[in-house]
Amino acid sequence: MAIEIPETAVVPDDVAPLTPKQKELVHATEPILREHGVAITTRMYQTMLAAHPELKNVFSMSGQASGEQQKALAGSLVAYSAHIEDLAPLVGVVQRIAAKHAALGVKPQHYPIVGEHLIGAIVHVLGEAFTPELQDAWYHAYWNLARLFIELESEIRAAAPWPGFTTFRIADKVEESPSITSFYLEPTDKELLPLRPYLPGQYLTVRVWVEALQHFQCRHYTLSDAPDPAHYRITVKREDGVANGDGDASPDLPSSSPGMVSNTLHSLPVGSDIQASFPAGTFIIPDPLPSHVIFLSAGVGITPNLAMLNSLVDLPKVPNITWIQGARNRVEHVFARHVRGIGEKCGKQFNEVVFYSRPGPPGPSGDGMGVKRVGKHRPGRVDLKALDRETLALQDPEALYYICGPPAFMSGMVQSLVELGVANDNIRFEAFAPGEIEMA
């Protein structure tokens, strides 16, 4: 009879809660990590992926090639050392990371591997400055954090509708714009039907085989509609970076360029099979509902906000909603007709503002946007300071702000909201690229 080993059994027996002295030592390394953190994490990934190439199926190779993953981990180490005395400010970050780990298939047995190569990288980069006393403090600090992640990820997996990755068939594809396509996914295992409802705003982690890389790659794609018992819908932008999705990379770009996964997905015909793990994520509307919800998105970042919007408008009591969306132009303005219909349905409870960064020729309404629409339309990038206080619900201390889009867009929106007096606790965001958005 097999004996079930608890997932926390990978944590070494000698790991104990950090002592005040160990916390002091870890905190003292913050400026060192700010200076040398990227060098440390770069070394860590190099040695770890060389020793364990199977982990290339888990980590984003485009994130590795761009250096974003190394920067993200370095930032996490700095934040951990800075807040080691009180981890409360990091709770939200830890929960987001744990959800992504669980969805990606990170297992407890991966933590000893990461720990070994992380400590080894610090020793390599800092040399004698990383004294035995500091090594001991960081050993316990690492494993205390790892234990927390292992426990959280175990809880997430236990609550999931299925373990690990399962096969979904592309039942339909709908072109939303020249570069954005929605995929309707049905499980091949019909015992999963009806699909368990997810929380609008959550994402599906898709895994595809990338021929040019000769291994799997995973990406998080938001479930872009309200829950449906028969299928999932994800909406994917085809990123520039490769010639096509069959594994033939552009000659001037490395095989790990951004766009490998999105181009692979876009190249798949209806009827193709892909793998996906369970819905996950913390970018959701709370219960009870806030009195006012402000959605801010740019490009394909509309997807989690759209899923939440579709769910909110079907409730018996719909909160006040402000919808702020940035797009290049009317051609790239995805789901425009759908959102317009919601605005007409909700009436005065719904306020829409659309920014076109590259507006086309004058449209039938003479608005210079190349399209006749209900609502307010402005040229340029999304500029919150150009909007009135009522539109942004700045008078409502309970209003919640949901932001999704490219990293620069989200950073700019967070900064603008804080400068306008919005509390950090009222700002929510979803970042699919490695790293976290800086809160002011």
From TrEMBL:
<dbReference type="InterPro" id="IPR012292">
    <property type="entry name" value="Globin/Proto"/>
</dbReference>
<dbReference type="InterPro" id="IPR039261">
    <property type="entry name" value="FNR_nucleotide-bd"/>
</dbReference>
<keyword id="KW-0479">Metal-binding</keyword>
<dbReference type="InterPro" id="IPR000971">
    <property type="entry name" value="Globin"/>
</dbReference>
<dbReference type="GO" id="GO:0020037">
    <property type="term" value="F:heme binding"/>
</dbReference>
<keyword id="KW-0349">Heme</keyword>
<dbReference type="GO" id="GO:0046210">
    <property type="term" value="P:nitric oxide catabolic process"/>
</dbReference>
<feature type="domain" description="FAD-binding FR-type">
    <location>
        <begin position="163"/>
        <end position="286"/>
    </location>
</feature>
<dbReference type="GO" id="GO:0046872">
    <property type="term" value="F:metal ion binding"/>
</dbReference>
<feature type="domain" description="Globin">
    <location>
        <begin position="17"/>
        <end position="154"/>
    </location>
</feature>
<comment type="similarity">
    <text>In the C-terminal section; belongs to the flavoprotein pyridine nucleotide cytochrome reductase family.</text>
</comment>
<feature type="region of interest" description="Disordered">
    <location>
        <begin position="241"/>
        <end position="261"/>
    </location>
</feature>
<protein>
    <recommendedName>
        <fullName>nitric oxide dioxygenase</fullName>
        <ecNumber>1.14.12.17</ecNumber>
    </recommendedName>
</protein>
<dbReference type="GO" id="GO:0008941">
    <property type="term" value="F:nitric oxide dioxygenase NAD(P)H activity"/>
</dbReference>
<dbReference type="GO" id="GO:0071949">
    <property type="term" value="F:FAD binding"/>
</dbReference>
<keyword id="KW-0408">Iron</keyword>
<dbReference type="InterPro" id="IPR017938">
    <property type="entry name" value="Riboflavin_synthase-like_b-brl"/>
</dbReference>
<dbReference type="InterPro" id="IPR009050">
    <property type="entry name" value="Globin-like_sf"/>
</dbReference>
<dbReference type="GO" id="GO:0009636">
    <property type="term" value="P:response to toxic substance"/>
</dbReference>
<dbReference type="GO" id="GO:0071500">
    <property type="term" value="P:cellular response to nitrosative stress"/>
</dbReference>
<keyword id="KW-0216">Detoxification</keyword>
<dbReference type="InterPro" id="IPR001433">
    <property type="entry name" value="OxRdtase_FAD/NAD-bd"/>
</dbReference>
<keyword id="KW-0520">NAD</keyword>
<dbReference type="Pfam" id="PF00175">
    <property type="entry name" value="NAD_binding_1"/>
</dbReference>
<dbReference type="InterPro" id="IPR017927">
    <property type="entry name" value="FAD-bd_FR_type"/>
</dbReference>
<dbReference type="Pfam" id="PF00042">
    <property type="entry name" value="Globin"/>
</dbReference>
<dbReference type="GO" id="GO:0019825">
    <property type="term" value="F:oxygen binding"/>
</dbReference>
